[in-house]
Amino acid sequence: MSTTTAPIVGPAGPPGPQGEQGPEGPSGQNGESVPKELVLELKNTLEELNNSKKSLREEIVGTVHYVFGIAPPRIGFLSLTSFGNLYQLKNKNPITRGDSFLLLGRIDLRNDFISLSVLPGSDDIQQSFLAITQNGESYESADLKNWSQKERIPLEQ
After folding, report:
1. What is the 3-class SS of 92-124, one letter each residue?
2. For residues 151 and 145, what is the distance between their CA atoms, to the nearest angstrom?
3. How many CB atoms sit inside 10 A of residue 132's CB?
4. Residue 153 neighbours by CB under 8 Å, 6+ apart
5. Buried b or exposed e, range 8-42, using 16+ CB within 10 angstroms
6. pLDDT (0 to 100) of residue 53
């Protein structure tokens, strides 16, 4: 009859000293040069990625002043964001400036607006506003509430 006993295992000890570095391996094969076209394509792709990340952030792209009416005039400033949100800083009266911006609305569900302009009104000209996107889409409004899309600016692609 044989009896076997399992070995008793104690706690692990500290790690031993690091061994010597082995011999250097053989040299690898020479690589091939990357074509300039591929380098240019990678550069353009990285630039597009960087630009697309920028479009994820809402930024102010334009600010203009406005004047509605004459007695007393309603005056203030408008700021457009890249997402098409329009903010108004309304003056308290013709002399005292306003203190905070209020969201008036969104022109369209886009994130590529780049410009806001105003055509000032006069006796025989109605004031109007023009917002433009990066690819040339344009929107016009006389009252800042109703925006109509105009013909696209024919940019070369």
Report:
1. CCCCCCCCCCEEEEECCCCCCEEEEEEECCECC
2. 19
3. 21
4. 132, 136, 137, 138
5. eeeeeeeeeeeeeeeeeeeeeeeeeeeeeeeeeee
6. 63
Q: Give the model's pLDDT for residue 98.
A: 82
**Minimal CA–CA distance to 115: which of 61, 64, 157, 67?**
61
Across the chain, which has 157 residues, the per-10-residue mean pLDDT values are: 71 87 86 81 78 76 83 83 93 80 93 89 78 93 91 84
102-106 β-sheet, strand order: 60-68, 74-81, 85-90, 102-106
- pTM greater than 0.85 (yes/no): no
**Residue 140 corresponds to which tokens in the numbers above?**
């016009």
Rg (CA), the chain: 33
Residue 83 CB neighbours (<10 A): 19
pLDDT of residue 52: 67
111 in Cβ contact with 83 (< 8 Å)? yes
Q: Which residues pair with 89 in a beta bridge?
A: 77
